[in-house]
Amino acid sequence: MKNIDVCLTPDLLHLHKDTLENSIVVVADVFRATSCMVTAFAHGVDCIIPVATIEECRQWQERGYYGAAERNAKMVEGFELNNSPFSYMDERLRGAKIAMTTTNGTLAITRSRNAVKVLVGSFLNLEAVARYLRSQSYDVLVLCAGWKGRPNLEDTLFAGALIERLKEEYSMMEDSAIMAWRMYNQGKNNLPHFLANSSHIRRLQRLGIHKDITYCLQHDLFDVVPVLRGNTLVCIEV
Amino acid sequence: MKNIDVCLTPDLLHLHKDTLENSIVVVADVFRATSCMVTAFAHGVDCIIPVATIEECRQWQERGYYGAAERNAKMVEGFELNNSPFSYMDERLRGAKIAMTTTNGTLAITRSRNAVKVLVGSFLNLEAVARYLRSQSYDVLVLCAGWKGRPNLEDTLFAGALIERLKEEYSMMEDSAIMAWRMYNQGKNNLPHFLANSSHIRRLQRLGIHKDITYCLQHDLFDVVPVLRGNTLVCIEV
């Protein structure tokens, strides 16, 4: 039986060093980086390069890429795209190449490079990711992007949601996976309510981004699975 | 209002560096180090020195201390005491000095030294710890000892239980605290059942330690609060 495990924050990724090379990593930064990426691919974007720094993002921009840079939940000046999924629902972006840097999500992706494969997960493409994983023979590690090294509720809930979809075919041996799964089952009937007091919701609400929150918590809108190829995310339809 | 936060494993303690100096840390290694410590003090032990290595433990033993050394949930040969709370219910130990090293718990204690105070928590002395904290003006950080760097269910549940007792007087701002609190409220009516699939329960059950598990999950047996003074744990009665 394949195994599914959860890493609650990139700051604990060192504990999974030995298993990473035999696992597919699913990176989740639900609010909002990975939800943006999934939305972008669903709207025809050609590829996304996740980069660690604003400087790198600028360099890709100079080579003709659209630039998306977010820090502390706000758009960095001088870039075309922000970290709202709605800014990726744009006909202009069909076939576009994007360079993206965010506070947590893009770093989590770049740090997972030693895995067999790195996928991008969100509630929006939950079933697509689950279906793709079922077709593979590898163990799964869900890497929650968290917030500046700390675990967060929304990414943990995504991990639990994915486990819920895979639980017939995968075993969960470790407590982080059990916790995520239990948490999701506690909250799944009303995720917005369950998340109401979370630290990032409070952060986003101060910025007036209710619409993004509601959007990002929708399940199974898109059948796209972004996968890292070299340093670039491309889209597999499943 | 005072704040209560949770660090799910010592491997995330670096994220709390700035707050540690203004916080009281409560270290929990429910299965079984901190439950042993609480039991030992409740049975009249004079002091416990938590040490990081087996070698250090042996050195204290040579100076007349009782030695307690556990690795991977098993007693290390050549020491008097193991990591079962029942081995501390012993008249011989009244007034005794103990040196203790365990896989996770003692390390968590020694790594918390920069805090205002370091307390030892377990379900056995839950209310005593809560009462002591209420009398203090500092923020609280619950440090879960986890298992070799990984978060675990039982210590997270203890963190949630302590929050449940303190929630009128403390705010919880961070998601780890919210998760622990939600988890405890989900499981509190039947903790043994809730923990049945946890990784450490499976580990302990292989060793046939059902009795220890049931014992360690009892709430409020003892009114003792072990506190670190220098390098030594001593007991405050509250």
UniProtKB/TrEMBL annotation, chains A, B:
Top enzyme category: hydrolase
Q: Does the keyword Magnesium apply?
A: yes
This protein's cofactor list reads:
Mg(2+)
Q: What catalytic reaction does the record list?
A: (2R)-O-phospho-3-sulfolactate + H2O = (2R)-3-sulfolactate + phosphate
Q: What EC number(s) are associated with this protein in UniProt?
A: 3.1.3.71
- UniProt entry keywords in alphabetical sequence: Hydrolase, Magnesium
Q: Does the keyword Magnesium apply?
A: yes
Q: Which HAMAP family match?
A: ComB
Q: Member of which family? A: Belongs to the ComB family.
Q: What is this protein called?
A: Probable 2-phosphosulfolactate phosphatase
Q: Which organism is it from?
A: Nibrella viscosa
Q: Which gene encodes it?
A: comB
